[in-house]
Amino acid sequence: MPNPDPLSTDLSTDQPTDPYDALLLLSFGGPEKPEDVVPFLENVTRGRGIPRERLEAVGEHYFLFGGRSPINDQNKALIAAIEKDLAEHGLDLPVYWGNRNWDPYLAETVEQMARDGVRRVLCLATSAYSSWSSCRQYRDNLEAAVAAVPDDLVAPEIDKIGAYYDHPGFVAANADGVLAALADLPDDVRDSARLVFVTHSVPISMSESSGPPRDRPEGGAYVAQHLEVAAAVAARVAAATGVERPHELVYCSRSGAPHVPWLEPDVNDRLEELAAEGTPAVVLSPVGFVSDHMEVAYDLDTEALATAERLGLPARRAASAGTHPAFVAAIRDLVLARASRERAGQPVPRDHCPLGCCTGSR
Ligand SMILES: CC1=C(CCC(=O)O)c2cc3nc(cc4[nH]c(cc5[nH]c(cc1n2)c(C)c5CCC(=O)O)c(CCC(=O)O)c4C)C(CCC(=O)O)=C3C
Ligand SMILES: [Fe+2]
């Protein structure tokens, strides 16, 4: 038990980040040069039954960008922004970084934390939503990394912040991205533009088993959470512009075997329909991604924007949360809120997944 006597700690003059002595940014990882691409894809898809053709196609996406995913640079920029923000607020909390699929690997980072004498760690994953891929798999990675710490070291205890999609700072950052994209559209279609929110498709079975079993919304938490963010961002944009625009949620980056159903519609198919219906313009907002991953660089900026261009449909891609100050402040808030609840012995329900939460992997 981390806090056998919560009252005594509550009344002390602890640091606002106590009981934590480090923050861990946990991410997916990505290749940095052409030689990295195949080993990276092997790491990602080990035991996942992804067809060879799909892997070759995804490899090409990476080669188109010189074998370098944007994700590691995005994470470095986010860590720098978090460190600066923490320092500006007088908070002394070192930030570590570990990935599931590429260097720096999570297990090495956790071992390094043990060597540095770090005992209690708060972890933020670069995914804001519930599902096996976006939450449970990261928890399993943490457990495995802690278990792999050599016996001569004391492994740190790691707590993971739960889904944070509805944090007002995350919503505000995405809304700002949509506002900037709208401003960049031609004047005559700006007010009639449709807001198309995009996230990573997942198998329907994964989506339906996402979230805590007891209060799981119909269809699963993954879709429900994205719809909530889409509505919140659209409402902020309406308030800021004085114009109500229609909005919807679509999907990108479908993978897996063709006979396994995944969430639809695909963004490209939907753009075809919207163009046929005479939609004047669209803004694509990648709310499913906290920063500009390869899915954003390829599936949206390369593929979907080309689809829109071919259809003669004016389209702009909105910025993801990235290092937007509202998102960076949201991270500080999530850290301080969790630390204070921990000191008071009041767990944050969403940070503790019940049995059966986000189980379905395919
Ligand atoms: C929900 C979700 C997120 C969002 C949450 C989060 O951020 O974690 C996400 C993120 C990412 N996915 C990424 C890359 C890949 N995902 C793949 C495969 C898959 N993703 C899935 C789901 C998700 N993925 C699923 C159900 C599969 C099928 C295989 C399986 O069941 O596990 C494959 C294999 C090839 C392919 O099949 O596409 C690759 C290369 C990158 C790195 C991008 C970069 O380099 O910038 C990132 C951030
Ligand atoms: Fe993925």
TrEMBL record:
Q: Where in the cell is it found?
A: Cytoplasm
EC? 4.99.1.9
- Write down any Gene Ontology CC term: cytoplasm
Listed GO biological process terms? heme biosynthetic process
The record's CDD domains line, in alphabetical order, gives: Ferrochelatase_C, Ferrochelatase_N
Q: What is its main location?
A: cytoplasm
* Family annotation (InterPro entries): Ferrochelatase, Ferrochelatase_C, Ferrochelatase_N
Annotated residues for binding of Fe(2+): 200, 295
Q: Which GO terms describe its molecular function?
A: ferrochelatase activity; metal ion binding
Name the pathway it acts in. Answer: Porphyrin-containing compound metabolism; protoheme biosynthesis
What function is annotated for this protein? Answer: Involved in coproporphyrin-dependent heme b biosynthesis. Catalyzes the insertion of ferrous iron into coproporphyrin III to form Fe-coproporphyrin III.
Q: Which NCBIfam families match?
A: hemH, PRK00035.2-1
Q: What is this protein called?
A: Coproporphyrin III ferrochelatase
Species whose genome carries this gene: Nocardioides kongjuensis
